[in-house]
Amino acid sequence: MPSIRRLLPTLLGLSFVLFAAVPALAAPVPAPTTSAAPIPATATSAACKLPVRVHQGAGALRPLQPNATQSEVTQLTARLLTRYSYEALPLDASMARRVFKGYIDALDPDKMYFTAQDLANFKPIEDHLDGAIWGGDLSGPFAIFNVFEKSVTAHVAYAEALIKKGGFDFNINASYEVDREHAPWAADNAALDTIWRERVMNDWLRLKLAGKSDADIRTVLDKRYQNYLDSLRELDSEDVFSMFLNAYAMANDPHTNYFGPRASENFDISMNLSLDGIGAELERRGDYTTIRQVLPGGPASRSPLQVGDRIVGVGQGTICPMVDVVGWRLDDVVALIRGKKDTTVRLEIIPGDAGPDARHEILSIVRKKVTLKEQAAKKSIITVHDRGHAYRIGVISLPAFYEDFAARRRGDPNYRSATRDVAKLLVELKKDKVDGVIMDLRNNGGGSLTEAIELSGLFIGKGPIVQVRDSNGQIAEQDSDETRVWNGPLAVLVNRASASASEIFAAAMQDYGRALIIGENTYGKGTVQNLVNLDRMADQPKGKLGDLHMTIAEFFRVDGGSTQLKGVTPNIVFPQTINPKDFGESSNPNPLPWSQIKPADYKPVADLQPLIPTLLEEHDARVAKSPAWQLMLDELAAVHKLQAETSISLNYAVRERERKAQDALQDQFRAREKAIEAAAKGPAHATTASAPAHAASAAIAEPAHAASTRDDGLQPNERPLHVDLARERKRDIPDTMLIEAAHILGDEIYLLQRDPHLVATALPPGGHVPPLLAEVPPLR
Q: Which of 531, 535, 662, 766 has the fewest CB atoms lying closer than 10 Å?
């Protein structure tokens, strides 16, 4: 059920780090089936007090209603957005239409629940929504949600009746529309029933094609659809409010957001790369909160806790009662387990390899500061062999421009930041005697503006990095005060998911002539946001109102251009891994337009333009005869073809034919991959040191065999945990795009070696390349 699956990560705030990096929910979470255990009067100290949201069921009574705090936050947000945001758009009838559409799309993006008649009935709410927001009246949005909830309940019941009855005719020439984003709204409930019948048929057919019996199919789908309903019923007033207020915020621009108290806490963790906790990654599986990963070096790693263990109870300290958490929302369990450093939490667990009736174990773990190392900058070394010469290319993979804001503000000399970590890695790579460096910013969605500026200084030195225009039209240059750490050849590898701070960095490297930009056109986000603490604005206790992540400025390149909508165009363009129409700033509703200002007063530190034609020629010639590159292109073409399909047949014979053809194509890809791996054993190909050159571990990467497993018709949480982990674990395969980027940088180094006079223009002052050890054939 796509709409529910999309809704939950946003509502529950689970797209951020919980313990380490809790993945976005792939399947809905069951509703609470138990309530919190009562706390005896003898243990009612502050240490035993539950977090407000953890009182299961409170705020979730039906029908859901808004509260006075939410009304206050709504009015405060309206005042802030209409006065202080970058465009400061008025909250009028036009804005009301935007907000209404955004809210309806958030609830029902696939048009599976509302009908055209429902939307007509909502028209009075839409027409008065601007005044309602100004007055803090949330009755309309909550009324819409309650209609939505009734529709979900009714149609899940209809689906379950269809599953019980079975007997579908898969000989018909019918299809199911899998992408309903641009479909018209169903006229009435009868039309919706038809859509739901097709959906259930598709679910049944997938499992049937995977070899499941009718009895097994009923068992799987009964549980799946019940989970859909349970996931809806556990949503509470705060969830609905957050969704509506985000509809208003994002009606101003795509990057203005409201963070409730928990989402705000998770945002801080994602920027600081640390938290006080036990160091374990959790997920929902059925009624249980399950250990998905134990972080090396964290408190949990020094306990008997194992992957697959199920948490059934949580207790604070040594005297507070154990709270039964079976059936709880994941974020509520997390709220109980998190706590202050050096305090104790007790976990009641069922071992992962035991049945539900097995003997429970009690583990006491002392919370500590947990560093999220997997999300920090990392280095590796790739050795590429060209023209009889080996080039050692250092790679720094940077997942985000993180910065511990709080530690920096309080003057902590050891505060964590992306710039500090990268500077250390550059020093290490210099000791490793690398010939060039690649900054891998694929899937880096941005972060701290300050970090983008300071990191740029490690390669450029002092000078303007970006220009920022505020809501008053005032333009200020943001300069780096850093000393250049790396003077040698540099490349920046980007893709469509490289955004915001990544685009500032890549644009600065390009405008200063400092680096080759390689990869795909970037995301196209050219705006700056500030986190406004609503508690402070309203003089409320911390953690009550949340934060407004508000767009306050637009940034421009030092050459005067903007990355807004257009992004950064690489010097050497790689194939698109995703359709820009489906992902990027231009695909968002309500984006700011592109604009341009005067260039800053800056002076390029180098000029790589004379080298680019030759580098392009070498790149084109190399990939034309590269089996790995051609395999990647063919896989991308197959993925794009599947993504372009908006409907799927419900005829068994047709689907079986399509499945066999898809399986055969995958088998061909695997055979080609094995041949490439065998050929790569020789010394004339790229090898790695320090770390394998895997594809970037985020939403967008090479197709790199993402569809290499057969479709079993199951959703992730319907499989055993070890099976899911095995399917998600990246295979030890070369990262084709990264390796080609290393070859391109090797070509640049070779050109500079062949003509030392080029070094003075292609590298900044103090830059050099090692001399050629032996005469080798020239480039074409």
A: 766
